[in-house]
User: What shape does this take?
Amino acid sequence: MPQLLEVVHPAPGFRAVVTLKKDLDDLPKAGAYLPTQRGMDVLHDVARQLEPTATARARLITGTYGTGKSHLALLMANLYLGHGADDRLQPLWERLRGSQWAGRAAELEKAARSLDRPYLVVLVEGPQPDFDGALLRHLEHALQAAGVTDHMPATYYRAAVERLQQLLSDQAASERLRQSLDRAGVADVQALRAQLEEASPAAYEQFQALHRLVCFGANFDPSAATQADEVYAEVAGKLRQAGTHSGIVVLWDEFGRMMELVAGEPSGKIGAGVQRFAESCGRAETGLHLYLVCHRSLDSYVALAGESRRLPGAQRQLWEEEWQKVSGRFQVWHLESKPNELFSLIDQVLVQRGEAWTVLTADHRPEFDDLTEQA
Assistant: This one.
């Protein structure tokens, strides 16, 4: 009796678990994505969204566990990053050319290969303390990773100047600051302030290091007095003007817990932030795209929020109106796998090994025939 791995083996690049941030640079894994009908619908939409003048660019992708949401997001991130012509994605294009979606796949491949300038991709995962703050923190990380910190938003520098003044106004903090200047590589605090006012990226990095030394390891957070939609629009404009990027794409995986908070209080801080950012994505000149990935459908989040709040008639109507203001900003894609698609996915994931597979199927033909009849 042959061992299982002597008969079949997983398709190259296939992994049962995909982590968006960790696997971002793994193009073979991204290219191993196996689309369903709904997954191909999303990718066909991406082909249109790769055009810089596209509008209505706020998307919500929902689906239960196992429907390939994170794997799809991984592939989308790499397409927006401009990797469509990378040889490591060649197996994907070959597989799609031979699929039932060959026509739409050709549009996607053409758009991905011909993308002139990549997008700056900002990745966020899971629940965060706040919506705007998380977007701003991860934008900073993305700018640093892409080596374009010279496009840091002006609001960050103003916030740094204000924070420096706060530290200097506090006697204890001011003393720690002056003792930490050498360790942070700062020659003169007033010169640092002047450089921050001139939006110097090097000065901003020095201030971040100084802030950690003065404030017992705490990172400087410039997001407290800024709104993500305004900052992103400003940075996207700078990137496009510089000719380095076509815009900014935000991919937020595992957004479910945040969506629960939005549904519970649509007009609250998080709900208002989501609404503002989605609205900003609808303006062509901003060059912004937003993808939120959740497990439940929107109806499920509404039902859960409604059960927990149990509002009286008038208040419930107001809550529903506020929720519509948020949800109405999004194009919703619900991923699902039909039974026939599941069998097709299994067939693509498990690759048969020639002779061993032939022998096995020949020896067990009666059993396979019985199972086929029962199915």
User: Anything to note?
Assistant: Residues 8-135+229-334 form a domain with the Rossmann fold fold (CATH 3.40.50). The longest strand covers residues 288-294. The chain has 19 helices and seven strands. The chain has a mean pLDDT of 87.
